[in-house]
Amino acid sequence: MTVLFPPSEFDAWAETYDQTVTVDDFPFDGYECALDTVVTLADARPGMNVLDLGTGTGNLLLRFAKEGCDLWCTDFSEAMLAKARAKLPQAHFFLADLHGDWPAELNRKFDCIVSAYVFHHFELDEKIRLIKMLAERLTPGGGLVIADISFLDAGALETVKRSLGEQWEDEYYWIADEAISALEQVGLKVEYVPVSFCAGAYKISV
Asked: What does the alpha-carbon distance between residue 120 and residue 200 come to, in Å, rounded to a whole number?
């Protein structure tokens, strides 16, 4: 498994992250809509127990807070978590890496597990492994909702890659048709909602 970015790079990014994601261009075109779509697909409601993985500066978290959800959040960047804590001090925050030890406080079930702009750091096989593990932490009827950099198919990705030229950076971006097939092959149900030319949201359930 290749780790593309260490926590230190996200620590350095924390101060300007909220400004970066407002740019309506690759890779953040549709960012705000993608986060709104997560809340809609999650059917957020008061008292819902929500785990946000890779919470960053808390932008997705804020939306669930407005719906009255009980919020549990992880990130592997202490600087990002500091930004999120300042926005929502009432939430439960944990410094944790998805590839590391699971905090003992999170050994519980959640009504919904969400994530935004995190899983494109993982190869498809690792995405599937993590999602299967996370699905075991859902309450009956619960779901996992992920928004991320995503393309409908490999052709759509190649079109954007060619248009960006030297500005393109290779990461493990979602290719929707491949990802949906892989998730369904391990017994998971998937609903996919395209958001922009480079963003989409996945609702995954058992």
From this structure: 12
